[in-house]
Amino acid sequence: MLSLIADSSSEWIKIGIFQDDKKLFAIEKEGMALENFFNLLAKVCDGASVKIAKIDEFIFCEGTGSVLGIRCASVSFFTFAYLSNAKIYSYNIFDIARNVCTKQNILNCQKQMTKINAKNSFENAGLNKFFSVKGW
Prior knowledge:
By secondary structure, the chain is of the alpha/beta class. It has one domain: ATPase, nucleotide binding domain (Nucleotidyltransferase, domain 5), CATH 3.30.420. The chain has helices at 33-48, 67-84, 93-100, 106-114, 128-131, and strands spanning 2-7, 12-19, 22-30, 57-61, 87-91. The radius of gyration is 15 Å and the shape is globular.
């Protein structure tokens, strides 16, 4: 199964294509989603030698974060899925954070989460190790 996963909800856009559990190609770039999302999407497809029409499932981050970035991914993925009968899924980064914060590390996560405010991103709060495309 071919999966295309994208997170364009922050100032870092992350897109990857996977064949089952194996990463075929992934890329991340700092920048605005409107200016970069579609170019990065094309680079990922080229890098993995995969046509959009062959994707079996599209997965995107639905937030929290940049509404414009989320819309770039969601609208394009819903359109591609509709035209190809692929499945579409979304996830919320706070749901992932909640699942990562087990009883063993909940105090550490709470300390990290208190560092997050309007001026800080997950990366600045030290949570990027859980959400980064690096290590996919």
